[in-house]
């Protein structure tokens, strides 16, 4: 049924970069045959799934939205892809994304435009916009995205989905094409909170192949979602972050987004939560800090795309030396946003400017983490809008990188501090979905699910 919907609708939506119907039907058939033989099946046996194209999949084309990886078929599975296979899921295909996950609208994909199913003249968010559009259009029941500065939560918010960025280190990064290694995390994008919890549980847990993987038990999340669905939040202490759309900080926020946010905070109170305002002054600096740290790490991570080890090689037809081939490959293989980040990151890391830019940004990162730590003395969760605006029109921000970056205002603090954060739908503004963000202390992802389920 999903393959039929993809065939009928993905020409308009543009969610998928790669679909292999035969492979999906064969995988589904294998599950059916195992069931008929009475074999023990994985917990998600037969459930279809879409993966963001940043996830390395054995034998299946993987591009990270970049021309430089066109035609590459990886020789191994990312840990999360292997875990989902073992759980019995059936891969429908790989979804479109901003090139190397750099962007908030999926317009930086080297391949195609992806449209928001709510209004096909609008963006589906980014960088996991293929995943959000696929799930919102019913072209997959759920999908995996990755979030470095908001790329699960913001596309989920603007397409009316649930999206969760796990605690940094709790989902393996092995086999995710690296953007900014100290920030990247994979997580679920789904239609319900319980689905998100189930998908998250299937990918979580320690992985010796990822040096930053936390060695702690797989979190119990579905139970938290079921408990939260009862709607009772009595005793829960909720902090509303002033700096994220509150008094004196509402510039750039849609009035409709702030109205839905205020109504949802009132709903939390009516469910028994104790709500107070919390000031996190360093959050005002999250945007500039992130846009130094993420490009710095990216400039280093993307050095591996040299025309030798992976994918495309340009100009290797005799008469050119290695440096020239590398330069030509990178010139033609990377898109403009990727080049902008590499140049910015290389500059920020250069010896004369390191302290002034990268060093300062790291200090701000520490201040942001401290704001969270101080907040946890008083509250169990912090809340904010997920995105300052609803989905904008395709093309509206492509010539203005700073306007594009502003979409990340609310999602960046949790990324920089490595704490978990969920986006759950909280109504419509101008007929378009609005997301509500719930942030929790590291390894307390279950609180995000509990609160989100109560609001669903
Ligand atoms: N929009 C942010 C960026 O462009 C975040 C992207 C992401 O989370 N991958 O860097």
From TrEMBL:
Any GO molecular function: glutaminyl-tRNA synthase (glutamine-hydrolyzing) activity
Catalysis performed (reactions): L-glutamyl-tRNA(Gln) + L-glutamine + ATP + H2O = L-glutaminyl-tRNA(Gln) + L-glutamate + ADP + phosphate + H(+)
Single GO BP term: translation
Database matches in Gene3D superfamilies: Amidase signature (AS) domain
Superkingdom per UniProt: Bacteria
One of the record's GO cellular component terms: glutamyl-tRNA(Gln) amidotransferase complex
Amidase domain sequence ranges: 1-448
Positions of the catalytic residues: 52, 127, 151
Keywords: ATP-binding, Ligase, Nucleotide-binding, Protein biosynthesis, Transferase
UniProt keyword annotation of Ligase present: yes
Pfam families xref list: Amidase (PF01425)
EC number: 6.3.5.7
Enzyme class (EC, first level): ligase
InterPro entries hit by this protein: Amidase (IPR000120), Amidase_CS (IPR020556), Amidase_dom (IPR023631), AS_sf (IPR036928), GatA (IPR004412)
Family label: Belongs to the amidase family. GatA subfamily.
Entry function: Allows the formation of correctly charged Gln-tRNA(Gln) through the transamidation of misacylated Glu-tRNA(Gln) in organisms which lack glutaminyl-tRNA synthetase. The reaction takes place in the presence of glutamine and ATP through an activated gamma-phospho-Glu-tRNA(Gln).
Subunit structure: Heterotrimer of A, B and C subunits.
Protein name per Swiss-Prot or TrEMBL: Glutamyl-tRNA(Gln) amidotransferase subunit A
Higher taxonomy: Bacteria, Bacillati, Actinomycetota, Actinomycetes, Geodermatophilales
């Amino acid at each position: 049924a999903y393959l039929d919907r993809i065939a009928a609708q993905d020409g308009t939506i543009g969610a998928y970069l790669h679909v292999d119907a035969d492979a999906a039907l064969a995988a589904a058939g294998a599950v059916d045959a195992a069931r008929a033989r009475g074999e023990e099946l994985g917990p998600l046996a037969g459930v279809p799934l879409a993966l963001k194209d940043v996830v390395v999949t054995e034998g299946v084309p993987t591009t990270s939205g970049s021309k430089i990886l066109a035609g590459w078929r990886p020789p191994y599975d990312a840990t999360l892809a292997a875990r989902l296979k073992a759980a019995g899921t059936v891969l429908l295909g790989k979804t479109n994304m901003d090139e190397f996950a750099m962007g908030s609208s999926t317009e930086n994909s080297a391949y195609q435009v992806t449209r928001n199913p709510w209004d096909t003249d609008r963006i589906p968010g980014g960088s996991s916009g293929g995943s959000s559009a696929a799930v919102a259009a019913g072209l997959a029941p759920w999908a995996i995205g990755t979030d470095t500065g908001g790329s699960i939560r913001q596309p989920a918010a603007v397409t009316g989905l649930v999206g969760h960025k796990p605690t940094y280190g709790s989902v393996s990064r092995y086999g995710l094409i690296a953007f900014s290694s100290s920030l990247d995390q994979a997580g679920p994008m789904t239609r319900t909170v319980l689905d998100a919890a189930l998908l998250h549980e299937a990918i979580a847990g320690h992985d010796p192949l990822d040096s930053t993987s936390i060695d702690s038990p797989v979190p119990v999340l579905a139970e938290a979602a079921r408990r939260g669905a009862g709607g009772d939040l009595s005793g829960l202490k909720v902090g509303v972050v002033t700096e994220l759309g509150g008094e004196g900080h509402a510039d750039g926020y849609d009035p409709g987004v702030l109205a839905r946010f205020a109504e949802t905070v009132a709903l939390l109170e009516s469910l028994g939560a104790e709500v107070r305002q919390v000031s996190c002054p360093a959050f005002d600096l999250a945007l500039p800090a992130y846009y130094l740290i993420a490009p710095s790490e990216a400039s280093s991570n993307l050095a591996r795309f040299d025309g030798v080890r992976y994918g495309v090689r340009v100009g290797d037809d005799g008469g050119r030396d290695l440096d020239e081939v590398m330069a030509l490959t990178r010139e033609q293989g990377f898109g403009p946003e990727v080049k902008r980040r590499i140049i910015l990151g290389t500059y920020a890391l250069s010896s004369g400017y390191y302290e002034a830019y990268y060093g300062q940004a790291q200090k701000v990162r520490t201040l942001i983490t401290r704001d969270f730590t101080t907040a946890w003395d008083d509250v169990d969760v912090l809340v904010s809008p997920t995105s300052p605006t609803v989905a904008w029109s395709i093309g509206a921000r492509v010539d203005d990188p700073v306007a594009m970056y502003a979409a990340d205002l609310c999602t960046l603090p949790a990324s920089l501090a490595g704490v978990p954060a969920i986006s759950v739908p909280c109504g419509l503004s101008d007929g378009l979905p609005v997301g509500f963000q719930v942030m929790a202390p590291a390894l307390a992802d279950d609180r995000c699910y509990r609160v989100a389920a109560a609001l669903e």
